[in-house]
Amino acid sequence: MDLLALDVEYAHFQRADGSLLIKPAEVCVVDQHGQAVYRSFCHPGVKLSNGFKFRGGVQEADWLEAPPLQVVAADVRKCIAGKVLVGHGLNKDLAALRLSHPKRLQRDTITYPPFRGPGGQAKRLRELAVELLQREIQSGRHDAGEDAIAAMDLYLKYIHNAPEYMGYQDMVSHYLQQYLQPHQTATANGFRAVVDKR
């Protein structure tokens, strides 16, 4: 199964009327080994000269000369096509990129019971990383690569091989792999699998 994890980081702006605008400004996609397969800043499409004030998040120096959101989103769409996609708050990140991805291929860690607090309340990724991975993240600015890796590691460690949290297709793949493993081992050791044709 091809697994990828997505994370999006945002730039925060204030309009002239005082309302806030949050736009994607950094995107990273990593594989299950934590290697980045796509990473880019993206221009949020906001001009500070048009009455907007920068209020935080990904710094202007990082995204000012970056490609526009449409270009980055198109790259991400190609990258994730047909892949199982992991993320923490995946719906939000996909919506920010104006992308859709088949529900059967989405694995949003924010929805799984082991990652929720009392009363089913969602926990922050930073909190989960400390509790379950013994890892400090987001100690400085948020980093899309670091967060994508944390989401992937949480999924692989606690969800990927836990049948009670699998969708139907994952469960079929899981048990099929368990069934085939002894036969593959026997073949690798020089034994030939015998098929009963009765």
**Largest β-sheet summary:** 6 strands, mixed
Q: Unreliable segments (pLDDT under 50, ≥5 consecutive)? A: 191-198
Distance between the amino and carboxyl termini: 32 Å
CATH topology: Nucleotidyltransferase, domain 5
Radius of gyration: 20 Å
CATH classification class: Alpha Beta
> How many H/I helices?
6
Count the strands? Answer: 6
GO biological process, one term: rRNA processing
Protein name: Exonuclease domain-containing protein
Domain Exonuclease: 2-164
GO cellular component, one term: nucleus
Please explain how this structure is put together:
The protein has helices at residues 60-63, 69-80, 90-96, 125-133, 144-158, 168-188; strands spanning 3-14, 20-31, 36-41, 53-57, 84-87, 106-108. The chain is an alpha/beta fold. The protein has one domain: Ribonuclease H-like superfamily/Ribonuclease H (Nucleotidyltransferase, domain 5, 2-Layer Sandwich), CATH 3.30.420.10. Strands 1, 2, 3, 4, 5 and 6 form a 6-stranded mixed β-sheet that branches. A hairpin with a 5-residue loop joins strand 1 (3-14) and strand 2. Helix 4 packs across helix 5 (144-158). The radius of gyration is 20 Å and the shape is globular.
